[in-house]
Design a protein that fits this description.
By secondary structure, the protein is mainly α. The chain contains 7 helices and no strands. The protein folds into 2 domains: about 70 residues; about 80 residues, no CATH class. The chain is flat.
């Protein structure tokens, strides 16, 4: 039996990967070549990213063409499918995780890093974890203290 794959997902990912590979190729061509010092284009620092970008483009083009043959361009969902998707629990959990993540970035300018890390870790663990709240509190305290100690004392990175 021949595997049908996922033509709609392949269609979308083919487009995304082609766009990314074009960006990689363009940016690799912008890297200075140092042709006189390094012995030509093949020794330039942008040569390997160029080859990887071209390879990624060819493979994503093959994925895209295969998805087109399998009619993967028919990705417009029905109203019921869209409503079920928006009202699904995974979507709500994802949105909440994004809100927690962005709240961390917004907190960074207003409170200390380790306090923001503690608050966000605790919120994630209470919302998505299966531990009791006091266990989540202890783990969040220990993790934020460990983050602070490792980065400020061992790596000597000043935290905001």
């Amino acid at each position: 039996m021949k595997d049908k794959g996922m033509p709609k997902a392949d269609f979308v990912m083919g487009l995304i990967l082609m766009a990314c590979s074009i960006v990689i190729v363009v940016e690799s061509l912008k890297i200075p070549r140092f042709e006189k010092d390094w012995g030509g284009f093949y020794a330039a620092p942008g040569f390997v990213p160029l080859i990887l970008g071209i390879t990624l483009f060819v493979m994503s083009l093959a994925l895209f063409v295969r998805a087109l043959k399998m009619k993967g361009y028919r990705i417009i969902p029905s109203r019921k499918m869209l409503r079920d998707f928006v009202h699904s629990k995974p979507v709500h959990r994802w949105c909440l995780a994004i809100i927690y993540t962005f709240s961390f970035f917004f907190l960074l300018g207003h409170i200390y890093f380790y306090l923001a890390a503690f608050l966000v870790l605790f919120a994630f663990m209470v919302t998505f974890g299966e531990h009791k709240r006091w266990i989540s509190l202890i783990i969040s305290l220990i993790a934020s203290a460990a983050i602070y100690l490792v980065f400020t004392k061992i790596f000597l990175v000043p935290l905001p």
